């Protein structure tokens, strides 16, 4: 399985997801600002992976000993506004730093590095637990539909939504996968299809607007997606296109499952209406791999995420179990377990 992100003596090493699947190249970030740039440019992406990258970025900045701790944290926090794991990881690093009053700079840097590496290891273990908890929800001899990429590439390893799929296969279930291409950045076509091919899991790539056709066919047993932020009422922010997929699943009686770690829960928000939605460059819509596909000077809207209301979500799978409606109760229980 691909190593998404690692801490090394040379710096933070991450696979360049903008160059997959045609080329497996790695980026070495030697400063926290380079980590911030990599997050912003989607060299590393996916809420859990962004959290790990942010923690490692903080550790790099502290090791550099420049700019000041809060400047480091603030720079990283400004990279992607929707993924709550980013802020969760930075706050965790802040708490560790606050506990080190009286320590030497070398001791502080070493402790921050240890914490960032621990966050990575925990993320892999969490994803495997999510997979085990979600595998039982996947029907045997059916197709699973997924959107965007919530696999090993979106985490430190194994994946959330793809972790559920991987665990279902490992348990002996005979399933195949339909992967939405996920316009405009094509994470499904470029990343999910590639990951599943690496694992020899039968996968069919479809365009986003084919989902309704296949959901109506009766072939699809469930939809499994990841999440970038989950509000206290169970509303889910995920890659743009998830909301329409959830509506189509509901219309056709297909269960719609969300797989995400507890760190994705934002119980300070009463609903998804409060989740900030990142707006990305118009060029992602008007161009495909640098080739223009739209008229010059056309107005473009490019929200990176949408919010799926909780009423369309059949269950939320996390490392502590499976939460079901009413989510105001079940998510609190999972968060405090």
Task: From the structure above, extract its key features.
337 residues; alpha/beta; Four Helix Bundle (Hemerythrin (Met), subunit A); Rossmann fold; 2 domains; seven-stranded mixed beta sheet; 11 helices; 16 strands; globular
Q: Would you give an account of this structure?
A:
- The chain has 337 residues and is α/β, with parallel strands linked by helices.
- The protein is built from 11 helices and 16 strands.
- The strands form 4 sheets. It has a 7-stranded mixed β-sheet with strand order 6-5-4-7-10-15-16, with helices on both faces. Strands 11-8-9-14 form a 4-stranded mixed β-sheet, with helices on one face.
- α6 (161-170) links the parallel β4 and β5.
- α1 (32-40) runs antiparallel to α2 (47-64), α4 runs antiparallel to α5 (105-135) and α5 (105-135) packs across α6 (161-170).
The helix tally amounts to 11
The Rg value, from CA coordinates, equals 19 Å
Number of domains: 2
Biggest sheet, spatial arrangement of strands: 6-5-4-7-10-15-16
Average pLDDT, rounded to a whole number, is 97
N-to-C series of helices and strands: EEEHHHHHEHEHEHEEEHEEHEEEEEH
Distance between the termini: 30 Å
Strand runs, count: 16
Q: Which word captures the global form? A: globular
| Secondary-structure arrangement, i.e. CATH architecture of the largest domain | 3-Layer(aba) Sandwich
- Biggest β-sheet description: 7 strands, mixed
Do you know the CATH topology of the largest domain? Answer: Rossmann fold
Q: What percent of residues are in strands?
A: 15-25%
CATH H level, superfamily name of the largest domain:
Translation initiation factor eif-2b, domain 2
């Amino acid at each position: 399985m691909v190593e998404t992100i690692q801490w090394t003596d040379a710096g933070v090493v991450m696979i360049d997801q903008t160059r997959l699947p045609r080329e497996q190249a790695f980026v070495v970030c030697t400063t926290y600002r380079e980590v911030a740039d990599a997050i912003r440019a989607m060299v590393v992406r996916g809420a859990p992976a962004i959290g790990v990258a942010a923690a490692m970025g903080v550790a790099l900045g502290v090791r550099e000993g420049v700019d000041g701790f809060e400047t480091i944290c603030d720079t990283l926090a400004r990279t992607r506004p929707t993924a709550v794991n980013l802020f969760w990881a930075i706050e965790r690093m802040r708490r560790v730093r606050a506990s080190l009053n009286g320590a030497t700079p070398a001791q502080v840097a070493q402790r921050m590095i240890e914490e960032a590496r621990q966050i990575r290891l925990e993320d892999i273990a969490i994803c495997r637990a999510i997979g085990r908890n979600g595998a039982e929800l996947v029907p045997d001899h059916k197709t699973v539909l997924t959107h965007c990429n919530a696999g090993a590439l979106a985490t430190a390893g194994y994946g959330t939504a793809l972790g559920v799929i991987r665990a279902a296969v490992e348990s002996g279930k005979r399933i195949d996968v339909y992967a939405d291409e996920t316009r405009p950045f094509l994470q499904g076509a470029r990343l999910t299809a590639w990951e599943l091919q690496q694992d020899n899991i039968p996968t069919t790539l479809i365009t986003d607007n084919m989902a309704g056709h296949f959901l109506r066919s009766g072939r699809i047993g469930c939809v499994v997606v990841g999440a970038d932020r989950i509000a206290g009422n169970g509303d889910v922010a995920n890659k743009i296109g998830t909301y329409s997929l959830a509506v189509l699943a509901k219309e056709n009686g297909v269960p719609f499952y969300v797989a995400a770690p507890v760190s994705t829960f934002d119980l300070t928000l009463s609903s998804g209406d409060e989740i900030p939605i990142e707006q990305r460059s118009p060029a992602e819509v008007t161009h495909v791999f640098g080739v223009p596909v739209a008229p010059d000077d056309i107005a473009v809207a490019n929200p990176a995420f949408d919010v799926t209301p909780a009423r369309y979500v059949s269950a939320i799978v996390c490392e502590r179990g499976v939460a079901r409606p009413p989510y105001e109760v079940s998510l609190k229980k999972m968060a405090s377990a």
